[in-house]
């Protein structure tokens, strides 16, 4: 059978998946592979999902499993039950899963049980913190995957330590940066946000920061205090919005501390490009700021993306709000490290993936 008859199925579900699937979908399309996209529906608000498909120039998903929110077990189980039917009906030759969200591990597990090969894009990242739901998702997905695409060398080392044969692992670079490189010139700030002057851009959604009332209050107070030095712009994730409402947290000066609804990819990129500092607990934003050379202060004790600290502009702040304040001072005084872009973060990672997938298809024809 010709390579173009191979059926690829991409599975995505949550916001950080969409900017990763987009370049891979394009690259596999360019080499003529047949493909379809399954959206699990883990993220379902239009501003957490649809806007990204529009801005990334992606086809709408062929199937939406509409699983919505729930506990981890509920969400994972529902994705598995519904995705199993899709796999049985469509019989894909290869299923591609992305990152570390519940949709990633759920789809990988279904495929492993049905004997369908899985490729994991963004394999090998480890925070070594098993209290983080994503770390469990990463560990299990990598054990189940047949092809593992890593963004940086630490990923290859982690996989080797876990006994995963090197023959399955390909260091390809960072697909999220592929999207950034392609869309950087189209970035545009949100309409109602002034981007003149110095501002800090904030994102926050990790359960360890926002689900614990004490922790969320402390972070919020520290951000309020920063408004003495610079404006704060904070697009708020739905999880965080709910927690803030529960605690009755509100800003004292909305001109200095601007809370926004979640914004699109191009709008967020424009804010990152112009921010004096980014304060975040996200994974992908640590990488994007490193690429852009913008100082990043990460409100976590650890990171699965150590290259952003070793080479890039990122520093781990943990829970130390004094360190946050002191670091912002340093940045405003122009005393931050410059950082370097990690190897293979060059906008071509997806092309490398497409090459490997084509070779994989050819070997299966011969085998
Ligand atoms: C998920 C991922 C996380 C990723 C993040 C990016 C897992 C375990 N976590 O976390 O790795 O960094 O997405 O955003 O997969 N909600 C809405 N509308 C939506 C989606 C969610 O209101 O479109 C609310 C719901 O109340 C839901 C809560 O946000 O219960 C959390 O959503 P969920 O998908 O469970 O996890 P995230 O915190 O978004």
Salient structural properties:
binds uridine-diphosphate-N-acetylglucosamine; alpha/beta
Task: Describe the protein in words.
- This protein has 367 residues and is α/β, with parallel strands linked by helices.
- 45% of the residues lie in helices and 14% in strands.
- It contains 15 helices and 13 strands.
- The chain has helices at 15-30, 50-55, 72-90, 102-114, 133-144, 153-161, 175-183, 207-210, 213-226, 238-247, 265-274, 284-292, 307-310, 321-332, 349-366, and strands at residues 7-12, 34-39, 63-64, 94-98, 118-121, 147-150, 169-171, 199-202, 231-235, 257-260, 277-280, 296-298, 314-316.
- Strands 3-2-1-4-5-6-7 form a seven-stranded parallel β-sheet, sandwiched between helices.
- Strand 6, helix 6 (153-161) and strand 7 (169-171) form a beta-alpha-beta unit.
- Helix 3 (72-90) crosses helix 4 (102-114) and helix 9 (213-226) packs parallel to helix 14 (321-332).
- The chain starts with 6 loop residues before the first strand and ends with a helix.
- The mean pLDDT is 97.
- Bound molecules: uridine-diphosphate-N-acetylglucosamine.
- Uridine-diphosphate-N-acetylglucosamine (UD1) is lined by residues 14-16, 42-45, 48, 69, 100-102, 133-134, 205, 237-239.
Briefly characterize the structure.
By secondary structure, the protein is of the alpha/beta class. It is 45% helix and 14% strand.
């Amino acid at each position: 059978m010709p390579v173009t008859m191979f059926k690829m199925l991409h599975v995505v579900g949550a916001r950080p998946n969409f900017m990763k699937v987009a370049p891979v979908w394009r690259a596999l399309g360019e080499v003529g592979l047949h493909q379809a996209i399954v959206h699990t529906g883990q993220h379902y608000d239009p501003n957490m999902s649809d806007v990204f498909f529009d801005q990334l120039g992606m086809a709408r998903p062929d199937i939406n499993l509409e699983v919505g929110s729930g506990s981890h077990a509920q969400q994972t189980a529902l994705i598995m039950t519904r995705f199993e039917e899709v796999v049985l009906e469509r019989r894909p030759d290869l299923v591609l899963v992305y990152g570390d969200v519940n949709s990633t591990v759920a789809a990988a597990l279904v495929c492993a049980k049905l004997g369908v090969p899985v490729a994991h894009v963004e394999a090998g990242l480890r925070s070594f913190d098993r209290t983080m739901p994503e770390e469990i998702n990463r560990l299990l997905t990598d054990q189940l995957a047949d092809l593992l695409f890593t963004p940086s060398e630490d990923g290859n080392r982690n996989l080797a330590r876990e006994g995963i044969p090197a023959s399955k692992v390909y260091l390809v670079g960072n697909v999220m940066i592929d999207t950034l490189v392609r869309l950087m010139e189209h970035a545009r700030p949100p309409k109602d946000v002034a981007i003149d002057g110095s501002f800090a851009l904030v994102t926050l959604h990790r359960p360890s920061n926002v689900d614990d009332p004490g922790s969320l209050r402390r972070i919020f107070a520290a951000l309020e205090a920063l408004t003495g030095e610079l404006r704060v712009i904070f697009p708020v994730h739905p999880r965080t919005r709910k927690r803030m409402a529960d605690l009755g947290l509100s800003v004292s000066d909305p001109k200095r501390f601007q809370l926004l609804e979640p914004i699109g990819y191009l709008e967020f990129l424009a804010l990152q490009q112009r921010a004096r500092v980014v304060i975040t607990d996200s994974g992908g934003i640590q990488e994007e700021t490193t690429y852009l050379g913008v100082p990043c202060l990460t409100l976590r004790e650890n990171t699965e993306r150590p290259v952003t600290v070793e080479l890039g502009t990122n520093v781990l702040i943990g829970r130390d709000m004094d360190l946050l304040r002191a670091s912002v001072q340093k940045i405003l005084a122009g005393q931050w490290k410059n950082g370097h872009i990690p190897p293979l973060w060059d906008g071509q990672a997806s092309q490398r993936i497409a090459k490997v997938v084509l070779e994989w298809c050819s070997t299966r024809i011969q085998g």
